[in-house]
Amino acid sequence: MNKLILGRYIPGDSWIHQLDPRTKLLASFYYIGIIFLANDWKSYLVMTLATFFMIWLSKVKLGFFLRGVRPMLWLILFTVLLQVFFTTGGKVYWQWGWLAITQFGLSNGAFIFMRFVLIIFISTLLTLTTQPLSLADAVESLLRPLRVLHVPVTELALVLQIALRFVPTLMDQTTKIMNAQRARGVDFGSGNLFQQMKAVVPLLIPLFVDSFSIAEDLATAMDARGYQGGDGRSKFRVLKYHRRDGVAAAGMIVLTGLLLLLRA
Amino acid sequence: MTEAIQIDHLSYTYPDATHPALADVSLDIAQGEWVAIIGHNGSGKSTLAKNINGLLAPTSGQVTVAGLPLTEENIWDIRAKVGIVFQNPDNQFVGATVGDDVAFGLENRGMPRDEMIVRVDDALEQVNMSAFSSREPARLSGGQKQRVAIAGIIAQRPDIIILDEATSMLDPAGRLEVLQLIQALRERQSLTVLSITHDIDEAASADRVIILNDGAIKESGTPAEIFARGPELIELGLDVPFAERLKHALISRGINMPAHYLDEEGLVNYLWTLHSTM
Hints:
Chain A is mainly alpha-helical and 264 residues long. Chain A is built from nine helices and two strands, in the order ααααββααααα. The radius of gyration of chain A is 24 Å and the shape is flat. Chain B is built from eleven helices and ten strands.
């Protein structure tokens, strides 16, 4: 579990940390979008420099980002190799039957590699510098216009908030049940696939039943504290845009302009 | 003095139960009173609490809270006046952080944000949890979570606080802390406290103790009156305070002890005079 970097939050108070989560969320999506604009070495160089500048701004160690790439490494290599061997055009360096390493193949492979790495870096940057809770707030705030279409945004936000809040609680509960079942002789994670699947049942069913009882207690407590549905509620936590959010947006526009100018 | 809670011939039967959980319970609680309800498991204590703020609707009988009869229309007004702290601190924590959780009840009432911030800070201050405002529940201890639950209730400024076995999952230190907190709150404002408990020390600090047995009120009186019937209580599946147990142990060893209930201080004083006369 600890190996997974994507989705982890590293506390800090850097420039990036202090950005409004909505800005960060939108900017990340936008950035991933404009990565696809880059199509030659100059535009890729600009994107790489921009990415490293943002990583530097976040004051998070580069190691975290590299570890974020690791689980995707095989997929990246596979795609890059496909590109290298199956793209034709330009000078031919090596050929064997229908397999060929060509000039275009190599450059395409390099570009795909950069594209993957930059996308992973930027999404890692988003999750490393934003608390899951703020992300949930950002999603709620950004979805708010959908209320016109009768999408129950406040209810969805509450569901998201409660789900996030109960993740650690249910994790603890899972560990507890696993240990309790181990103490009674259940052997998790050994044997063939079928045996392993069967061993999960004494973990899954108590967890399921537990969730029901938690849900009931929680619903009672919410009722007792006057929860009457999403309408007419005020909000304790509000998001506010600051000057730095404007700066970030301006940065994105400048970057787009630069890319459009430089791309082949 | 006005009555905070009036319960008039209340009966409640759970949908598929054969026996009523509560049978013809009548009870008046004065404003500012601390009433402890004790009884063995399944005696109907929690059912009573849920009938008071309308989480359950009485099968028959009438409940009046702060002059308002409990009906479909004013159920939310009553819930604003009655705050319940439940047993399991983990399962009643709604918010993603301590501050959010305390604000939850206020959000539900559509309170403006400025006022909400003041109230949340004030409530956290009162339970001594100000430094934890942005903490997540997973990183709090059971006692701290329970204090946050109490802060969430006092932020709503209720007239009545019901503690539904609120201290049962805490260690002795945490339990004492919560009780002292409630006591301090009660001194600051005229708060009616209804505590449902298995903890005998909690019951001993109440103004009045009510014994619930199989859905009916068995006995009602001051802690001194109730605890003086030591052996009877044990037969009902309840415990007696330590001083009372010591008194009975001394009586069985042939030492002359008064029949009325002695708290710890009273017992010490009595033993001291007993010794000096010998």
